[in-house]
Design goal:
Strands 24, 25, 26, 27, 28, 29 and 30 form a 7-stranded antiparallel beta sheet that branches. A 6-stranded mixed beta sheet has the order 1-2-3-4-5-6, with helices on both faces. It has 4 domains: 11-17 and 30-202, 2-Layer Sandwich (Transcription Regulator spoIIAA), CATH 3.30.750.24; 216-391, 2-Layer Sandwich (Transcription Regulator spoIIAA); 451-600, no CATH class; 608-706, PDZ domain (Pdz3 Domain, Roll), CATH 2.30.42.10. The chain has 23 helices and 30 strands. A hairpin with a 5-residue loop joins strand 16 (314-321) and strand 17 (327-333). With 755 residues, it is α+β, with helices and mostly antiparallel strands.
């Protein structure tokens, strides 16, 4: 599968600011995206193409539930990094998505993805890997390259676990495979070689400009005859092998040719097609062409290519949404849009995702072919029949020679007995070997094998002796608060360090809570989160091997760490690697430090009260994330007196997240915004809306309609007016033009009030 493909815009799924970006300019331009996902679909096949970093912002289950296809293709060639929480989100995505489809295929897996396939159980979620990149290195130009392998054509090389040297794309010198074959190919070898279906190959070539294998895709023809309608479906490249004479033989009546799976049209194939369209003209009543792709449109939709009777019913054109950036292939009904197409213009379409206007990105050559398309005129019955034929699936044909295979010669009755005895001996030998190796392997410090690698010659002094995985502890260092977090046994160094960092920062937050002396705060805030925190940590202590307990603690620590991010920097780190039975495993140690004055400022900010509209609130304390994992900041309502907040129905101990859509990151901001919004609504009327987190579920909206100040309208106190001269001068009139009084003269000029 070639790496070359068409360029498409992308959909953002999370964003971050670049540390190497130039100084900020006065603009509202969004930050570059961490992960982008391109979406392509055609019929029952969909493709998601990933580029960037997969982390906790990747909403795996949400994206997976939106998948609607029979075959889902995942292009993972652009994945640069997968964080520890990204692994969790990805596994959720893969295991959910595979239930939505009949088959899931992984293509162009980056080396980072292959590493996770080898280490993380169910990382593919039941999907099958068709192609992946192997890392190569060139010592001549000191560059790292990668080569694409397919299980269909490269499996023999994969089985050898050795890849031959290849010329470097940069300097043309020899580069070598830069991995241990037995480790890197372990997952792929378990699943063997297999081939893609014809329709998937055609989809990849047509929609994404992928070419499977090194040889052009052979053209495949399926044929259905219903009454006087003959339906032909072509799949593959249109080249000099196109059997025009064989295909034209015997055609009659109405002929429909589906070219939706023809990704490429070569010059020789175009010539064969023109000969075919001319040859069938006197034989058939009408020749309809459906599923026309851009390549076919550019080369064969002129008068010579369509012939005397060829009519295009529908085609596919590429579009891009200028609002959300989604690129998609849209089917165009020629009869419906002919009045626009005849002017070499694409129809105006709306984005299926955000409903904004899309722009056609077809080539100029394709657009200039549109005016030559004749306007179709078919009956509703034929249109319905064509739709049913296009949706029909063709069963794979079995080889006709299977039934004629000669019978195998009968074996002696002793052969099965000897085979059975041999299997018993081998199994017994394997059991003895396993028991011996198990006995000989060192358990190591944590029962996961001996230490085979470490980041330093010895454990640093800041790590307590006999520290168990998964714990965290704090201490004083010259007035500063220092905390150490230890990961559980993890499949990668990166995963272990992420977990240890979260544990250390969460300990900082917990220690800050212990240093607060405000009695009212202590009676209100800690009871909200203490029970949730203690229960999750106790479950992990009872069963350190429990996947669910470990996940609950990691999620809680991660949420607290996210709320306190940037406050306590990492000052030291250390890790150890172990040779476990199921592969390399890691334990990491992270030390963070918070200066004494900084700790005092944080405590003051978390305990300072602000009162507005009867509600007394304090700033969201990070440990509350154990109870409210979806909230990282806000204002906690400590007490309520009669007022607007109480009238809304907001309860004490709730967290206010937004006011009329405006974020409330702390108590001071909440008090300011809610007073401002209330004053505006009392003047003009409307609804006061608060988004509030009051339980472990999703935040709820509380709203109250405010009537606003009544508007005085002009009244006729002096009786009826008679004629123009009475206006503005009669009894009760102030002589002021009513249009001016109510703002009619604001803007660009004085106009007639009746306008």
């Amino acid at each position: 599968m070639e790496a070359a493909r068409k360029s498409h815009p992308m959909l953002a799924s999370g964003s971050r600011a670049s540390s190497s970006a130039p100084p900020p300019q006065p603009t509202d331009a969004p930050a570059p995206a961490k992960l982008t996902i391109e979406k392509f679909a055609d019929g029952g096949i969909s493709c998601l193409k990933f580029n960037g970093t997969i982390d906790e912002s990747f909403e795996g289950k949400k994206i997976a539930r939106s998948v609607q296809a029979e075959t889902l293709v995942l292009d993972l060639g652009g994945v640069k990094k997968i964080s520890s929480f990204g692994i969790r989100e990805w596994v959720d995505f893969a295991t959910t998505a595979v239930k939505q489809v009949k088959q899931m295929i992984l293509i162009e897996c980056a080396p980072k993805v292959v590493d996770q396939l080898n280490m993380v159980a169910n990382f593919a979620g039941g999907g099958r890997v068709f192609s992946f990149y192997a890392p190569f290195r060139c010592d001549y130009c000191d560059s790292e390259q990668r080569a694409l392998l397919e299980v269909s054509k490269d499996f023999e090389a994969i089985k050898s676990m050795k890849l031959g040297d290849r010329p470097c794309p940069s300097c043309k010198e020899s580069m070598y495979f830069d991995e241990d074959g037995s480790t890197f190919f372990s997952y792929v070898l378990q699943h063997g070689a297999w081939e893609l279906d014809h329709d998937v190959v055609a989809f990849l070539a047509t929609k994404l400009d992928y070419r499977v294998g090194t040889i052009d895709q052979k053209l495949h023809v399926d044929k259905i005859i219903e009454g006087r309608v003959t339906y032909l479906r072509l799949s593959g490249d249109l080249n000099n092998s196109f059997p025009r004479e064989k295909l034209a033989e015997g055609l009659e009546g109405t002929v429909i040719i589906d070219v939706g799976n023809v990704p490429r049209v070569e010059p020789a194939g175009a010539a064969e097609w023109r000969g075919f369209s001319q040859a069938v003209a006197p034989l058939v009543e009408q020749l309809y062409i459906v599923g026309v792709q851009p390549a076919f449109l550019e080369k064969l939709c002129d008068k010579e290519g369509l012939g005397p009777k060829g009519v295009v019913l529908d085609m596919t054109l590429p579009f891009t949404c200028g609002s959300c950036g989604q690129g998609s292939q849209q089917q165009i009904n020629v009869a419906e849009h002919h009045e626009v197409l005849k002017f070499a213009t694409a129809p105006e379409l709306r984005c299926p995702s955000c409903k904004a206007a899309m722009t056609c990105t077809a080539t100029e050559q394709a657009m200039t072919s549109l005016p030559a398309l004749p306007k179709p005129n078919i009956t509703k019955d034929l249109e319905r029949q064509i739709g049913m034929l296009k949706a029909r699936k063709f069963e794979k044909k079995l080889s006709a020679g299977l039934g004629a295979l000669p019978k195998a010669p009968q074996r002696s009755a002793a052969v099965p007995i000897l085979l059975a005895l041999l299997l018993v001996v081998v199994a017994a030998g394997g059991a003895v070997f396993y028991m011996k190796s198990a006995k000989e392997q060192e358990p190591g410090p944590y029962g996961h094998g001996p230490v085979v690698e470490r980041s330093a010659a010895a454990q640093p002094a800041w790590i307590k002796p006999n520290t168990a995985p998964g714990v965290a502890y704090c201490g004083e260092d010259g007035g500063a608060l220092t905390c150490v977090g230890v990961s559980t046994v993890s499949p990668s160094q990166e995963d272990a360090e992420d977990e240890a960092s979260d544990a250390a920062i969460e300990s900082i937050a917990f220690e800050l809570g212990k240093r607060i002396t405000d009695k009212e705060w202590l009676a209100t805030i800690p009871p909200i989160y203490t029970a949730a925190r203690d229960a999750k940590l106790a479950a992990l202590n009872r069963d350190p091997q429990s996947t669910q307990a470990r996940r609950d603690v990691r999620d809680g620590r991660r949420a607290v760490s996210h709320s306190l991010r940037g406050v306590a920097p990492t000052v030291a780190r250390y890790w150890e690697a172990f040779d476990a039975r199921d592969g390399r495993r890691y334990v990491a140690f992270i030390q963070v430090k918070l200066a004494g004055p900084d700790a005092a400022k944080l405590i003051e900010s978390y305990t300072k009260r602000h009162t507005a509209l009867g509600a007394t609130s304090v700033t969201f304390f990070p440990e509350l994330a154990w109870k409210f994992p979806k909230v990282t900041r806000g204002a906690v309502v400590m007490s309520l007196d009669p007022g607007a907040i109480q009238e809304l129905g907001v309860a004490e101990n709730s967290v206010v997240v937004t006011v009329d859509g405006r974020d409330t990151p702390d108590a001071e901001t909440f008090a300011k915004i809610v007073v401002e919004e209330r004053a505006l609504l009392e003047d003009r009327g409307g609804s006061l809306r608060l988004l509030v987190q009051s339980d472990s579920g999703d935040p709820r909206e509380f709203s109250q309609t405010i009537a606003g100040r009544p508007v005085e309208t002009p009244s006729d106190r002096g009786g009826k007016h008679h004629g123009r001269g009475d206006r503005g001068n009669g009894p009760g009139s102030s002589g002021v033009n009513v249009w001016d009084r109510f703002g009619g003269n604001r803007g660009s000029g004085r106009d007639d009030p009746t306008q």
